[in-house]
Amino acid sequence: MALHLGDIAPDFTQESSEGPVKFHEYLGSNWGVLFSHPKDFTPVCTTELGYVSKIKPEFEKRGVKVIGLSVDPTASHKDWIRDINETQHTTMNYPVIADHDRRVAMLYDMVHASADNTQTVRSVFIIDPKKKIRLMITYPASTGRNFDEILRVIDSLQLTDKFSGATPANWKDGQEVVILPAIQDENELKTKFPKGYKVVKPYLRMTPQPNK
Predict the structure, then answer these.
(1) 3-state DSSP call for residue 15?
(2) N or C: which terminal CB in the chain sees fewer CB atoms within 10 Å?
(3) Given 27, 45, 127, 150, which residue is catalytic?
């Protein structure tokens, strides 16, 4: 069954490069990023796993736990990790799920028959502390993922969960945000947005980022 935004991320127990993982237990009360790979020893995925290990402190700063997935067994993962460490000049510092039986791939609808009826597609899931899926992106095999964009989305989600706003196109942390059209009461506007706001159109009001 296809997953949708707002669904509870399916729980599972599966082996990984760092031992058995109980997914919901692994996430705990943190945000999570689960990202998948079609197989071990693939070039684009090698760069992705290495890059995430380098920027893991950025995820930790936001209270996010990262975990990868590939369809080969743990022994293969460990051999691949040695290559990742060597070629990407890093040290892997998070687990990679060994989804050799495709169980997690099927739970997360990551086998797309029109693309390849056996291999897991390269997907990203952002999961909040309530275990709800907040973002899903699926990339073509030829295009490496933009993990800076994934961090940007996490910044937006965490901000807008706390404040009654939304983030505009290309927004980055520290820039102006949009006030939700549903907020019309002037006292509420003054309370929630004490820095003031500008009216571009009645439905488009901009305010400085509330927590900056």
Answers:
(1) coil
(2) N
(3) 45
CA distances from 87 to 3, 69, 83, 90 (A): 35, 19, 6, 8
pTM: 0.93
Report in angstroms the alpha-carbon separations of 72 from 104, 152, 210. 12, 30, 45
> Is 45 a known active-site residue?
yes
- Cα(186)–Cα(204) distance, rounded to whole angstroms? 15
Instruction: Evaluate whether 126 touches 134 at the Cβ level (below 8 Å).
Output: yes
Cα of 124 vs its chain's centroid, Å: 6
Tell me the HSE value of 32 on the side-chain side, using a 13 A CA sphere. 24
Q: 178 and 145 in contact (C-beta within 8 Å)?
A: no
**Torsional sign, CA 178, 182, 187, 192:** negative
